[in-house]
From TrEMBL:
Taxonomic superkingdom: Eukaryota
Residues in the signal sequence: none
BP-aspect Gene Ontology terms: carbohydrate biosynthetic process
UniProt name for this protein: PseI/NeuA/B-like domain-containing protein
Domain PseI/NeuA/B-like residue range list: 136-379
Listed GO MF terms: N-acylneuraminate-9-phosphate synthase activity
Length: 409
């Protein structure tokens, strides 16, 4: 006598045992409720046999359940081990492919590898060690450049501005705005040490200059690039120092600047020592902290390219918005250089922290810009190598050529 039994599916011993007992009880039920009118002799002969058979079946079922549980546990362990191995193999293969791709990759249509400038500015709060730490954090996040700011407050500000209160006293580091600015300044020797730290960790050092004295001081360090911020892009005496006494790249932002003023900037750099075509990077920028998305005006970058491509070395985007999605649009529109304010903690005291990226945000920005760069290419063949297997497997007319021929119109 044989009876089919479904394999128990509950996960623990108790539930498996209960399932087995329930199954057997349902089978024994008609025996226990044998109709009283049946022949007593037949009952006395068959009933013990049936009970013995079911008892043996119960023992075998319990043994099967225990064996099944052990088998399932072992299978689960093997499955987890195999899954972990496959995942690790996949990760290693992905890293190998990524390494090969990045080494051999070249974008089409003139898209260059993006460069991210971590604009530390004065977010170091006047503390040299914090400035060094921010450089290290920027490097670890994937930035190309760590940038600061240099001012000579007494040269830059009028006496009235110097002696006025900070417009937001909560963020001030001095009794007057001038004293606040003096407190945040690092001297030239400290900038030289920061440049040395950049060289040690594999990061490019840069600085924005606001006045002629600062331009001369930073130019004496001969960094690979110096930035002219939007407030200073009509300061011709300062820019003359950078044009005629410095040979590196000069990045110039165009926030709060008219189109005629931008033309004056480019024309100025086309004169005198050096060549704007080889040295100047023009940045699209809106001067606000932070800038709402509707005021980013990203298509101005398109206008800069249309008007000045061939007259300057390249283009960039200096963003004061929130988040990082806008930066990808800037790269797609031709901004090879991407500058974002950077801090360790957006809640620190100061004006720029709230509009800055923290390390996690900067890391994601660098990651996403690199991914965008890798996307900027055309297909080298109609069917890419990674598509070939999928085409053979999924494409109608490829995996079923005979049927496709019969149904062709």
């Amino acid at each position: 006598m044989t009876m089919p039994l479904d394999k128990p599916v509950p996960a623990d011993d108790t539930s498996k045992q209960a399932a087995s007992d329930c199954c057997l009880d349902s089978c024994l039920h008609p025996v226990r409720t044998w109709p009283l009118h049946c022949n007593e002799t037949l009952q006395s002969q068959i009933f013990p046999i049936v009970l013995c058979a079911f008892a043996a079946l119960r023992e075998r079922t319990h043994a099967y359940a225990a064996s099944s549980q052990a088998h399932d546990a072992a299978a689960t362990r093997r499955s987890h081990t195999a899954c972990k191995t496959r995942c690790n193999d996949a990760r290693r293969a992905t890293r190998r492919r990524a390494g090969t791709t990045m080494a051999a990759f070249q974008a089409d249509d003139g898209y260059e590898e993006p460069h991210v400038i971590a604009e530390i500015g004065c977010n170091h709060m006047g503390q040299f060690e914090i400035a060094k730490e921010l450089l290290t954090l920027a490097k670890n996040a994937g930035a190309t450049v760590g940038k600061f700011q240099k001012r000579c407050p007494k040269e830059l500000l009028t006496e009235e501005q110097y002696n006025a209160q900070h417009p937001n006293p909560h963020n001030s580091y001095g009794d007057t705005y001038g004293q606040h600015r003096e407190f945040l300044e690092l001297d030239v020797e400290q900038h030289r040490l920061l440049q040395k730290h950049c060289e040690e960790i594999g990061l490019l050092y840069s600085c924005s200059v606001w006045d002629t004295t600062s331009a001369k001081e930073i130019a004496s360090l001969n960094p690979p690039l110096i930035k002219v911020g939007s407030p200073s892009n009509q300061h011709w005496e300062m820019q003359k120092v950078l044009r005629d006494e410095y040979s590196g790249m000069v990045h110039i932002s165009t926030g709060m600047t008219t189109k005629d003023e931008v033309e004056k900037i480019v024309s100025f750099w086309e004169q005198g020592k050096g060549n704007a075509k080889e040295r100047v990077i023009l940045y699209n920028c809106t001067s606000g902290y932070p800038v709402p998305f509707q005021d980013v005006c990203m298509l101005e970058l398109k206008l800069l390219r249309e008007r000045f491509a061939g007259r300057v070395r390249g283009f960039g985007f200096s963003g004061h918005h929130l988040g990082i999605s806008v930066d990808i649009a800037a790269y797609a529109l031709g901004a090879t250089w991407n500058e974002r304010h950077f801090t360790k903690d957006r809640t620190w005291k100061g004006t720029d922290h709230a509009a800055s990226l923290e390390p996690a945000g900067l890391s994601k920005l660098c990651r996403d810009l690199k991914a965008a760069w890798q996307c900027m290419s055309y297909k080298k063949t109609d069917i890419l190598p990674l598509e070939a297997a999928q085409r053979a497997k999924l494409k109608w007319g490829c995996y079923n050529q005979d049927l496709a021929k019969k149904t062709a119109v």
